[in-house]
From TrEMBL:
<dbReference type="GO" id="GO:0070402">
    <property type="term" value="F:NADPH binding"/>
</dbReference>
<keyword id="KW-0560">Oxidoreductase</keyword>
<dbReference type="InterPro" id="IPR011032">
    <property type="entry name" value="GroES-like_sf"/>
</dbReference>
<dbReference type="InterPro" id="IPR013149">
    <property type="entry name" value="ADH-like_C"/>
</dbReference>
<dbReference type="InterPro" id="IPR013154">
    <property type="entry name" value="ADH-like_N"/>
</dbReference>
<dbReference type="Pfam" id="PF00107">
    <property type="entry name" value="ADH_zinc_N"/>
</dbReference>
<dbReference type="InterPro" id="IPR036291">
    <property type="entry name" value="NAD(P)-bd_dom_sf"/>
</dbReference>
<protein>
    <submittedName>
        <fullName>Oxidoreductase</fullName>
    </submittedName>
</protein>
<keyword id="KW-0521">NADP</keyword>
<feature type="domain" description="Enoyl reductase (ER)">
    <location>
        <begin position="10"/>
        <end position="310"/>
    </location>
</feature>
<dbReference type="Pfam" id="PF08240">
    <property type="entry name" value="ADH_N"/>
</dbReference>
<dbReference type="InterPro" id="IPR020843">
    <property type="entry name" value="ER"/>
</dbReference>
<dbReference type="GO" id="GO:0016651">
    <property type="term" value="F:oxidoreductase activity, acting on NAD(P)H"/>
</dbReference>
């Protein structure tokens, strides 16, 4: 039997440990002994809202203990990072090799575990803008895991990047990540106009913020909607959107994006960028996975920026 984390309405933060049978891999899956995983606000929210027992978890890093029977993917003993739709918070997982990338020895399991959801989301959202050299990009949620990765990747593309922060202290984190300008205070989002119009907007806030940003798109500009941390509804000025023409509002869901992307190759790319110090995961919290309830609560309440990583002994 192995230990795994499940949702439980009677447990703190709705999360509890449970012993289950080890996973049985399909021919295209490898068995991985998980060493670390990172937390994302989306999965925490889903777990907190769950009324039935489920096994949450998306990001993980560990060691292959049984390679895929198909003969593809990382071999036994390989250090890997991967992505699952659920169940990654477990001592062992069965992972499709298409979602699994081998990582070099210089990359720690903690660093690797930050890359799947946050890193791939940032990478794929930026790709919606095409060639970014010389373009203007606006990023909300800049101090979160996705935001900090997006700023670093965008800065390397040669784009002019504007970010957001709630305080001057947090604004400094965004500047360190490569932002050219930082708008402080989400209520002042209209002041972003002074640096626009924008060829690409990456928004994870939704609500009034999304509505205020759409008119700031340049002709042929794209707004990638990643989430709705402030509100799941937005009142859009359709006259402005339609009469300006050529602007795109793109709904982004990583699970759907992953079906059309070379996830293993892109995870390898992100890992290489970390090794080369061109991408720096900001890990604010590292703890044992026995502390899942406390860390999950703190992440949900935005008590820290960047990523939280939990280690499995």
């Amino acid at each position: 039997m192995i230990r795994t984390i499940v949702t439980d309405p009677l447990a703190p933060s709705n999360l509890a440990f449970k012993k289950v049978a080890p996973p049985q891999a399909m021919p295209w899956e490898a068995l991985v002994q998980v060493k670390a995983f990172s937390l994302n606000r989306g999965e925490i929210k889903d777990a907190n809202d769950s009324k039935a027992s489920s096994r949450p978890g998306w990001d993980f890093a560990g060691i292959v203990i049984e390679p895929a029977k198909s003969g593809t993917g990382p071999q036994k003993g390989a250090r890997v990072v991967g992505l699952l739709p659920m169940g990654a918070w477990s001592e062992q997982v069965a992972a499709p090799v298409a979602m699994l990338a081998e990582i070099p020895e210089k990359l720690t399991f903690a660093e690797a575990a930050t890359l799947p959801v946050a890193g791939l989301t940032a990478l794929y959202a930026l790709r919606k803008g095409g060639m970014l050299l010389g373009k203007r990009i606006f990023i909300t949620g800049s101090t979160g895991g996705v935001g900090l990765f997006a700023h670093q990747l965008a800065a390397q593309s040669g784009a002019f990047v504007v970010g957001t922060a709630s305080t001057e202290e947090k604004a400094e984190l965004v500047r360190e990540a490569g932002s050219d300008e930082v708008i402080i205070g989400y209520s002042a989002i209209l002041s972003a106009r002074q640096f626009g119009p924008y060829d690409l907007v990456i928004d994870s806030v939704g609500g009034n913020t999304l509505a205020a940003l759409l008119p700031q798109l340049a002709p042929q500009g794209v707004c990638v909607a990643l989430g709705f941390s402030s509100s799941n509804t937005a009142t859009i000025d359709m006259m402005n959107l339609v009469t300006s023409g050529g602007k795109t509002l793109y709904s982004f869901f990583l699970g759907e994006e992953a079906t059309r992307q070379a996830v293993a190759d892109d995870l390898s790319l992100l890992a290489r960028l970390v090794i080369e110090k061109r991408l720096i995961p900001r890990i604010e919290v590292e703890a044992n996975w026995n502390d899942i309830a406390t860390v999950a609560r703190d992440l949900k309440e935005r008590k820290f920026s960047g990523k939280a990583v939990l280690h499995i002994d």
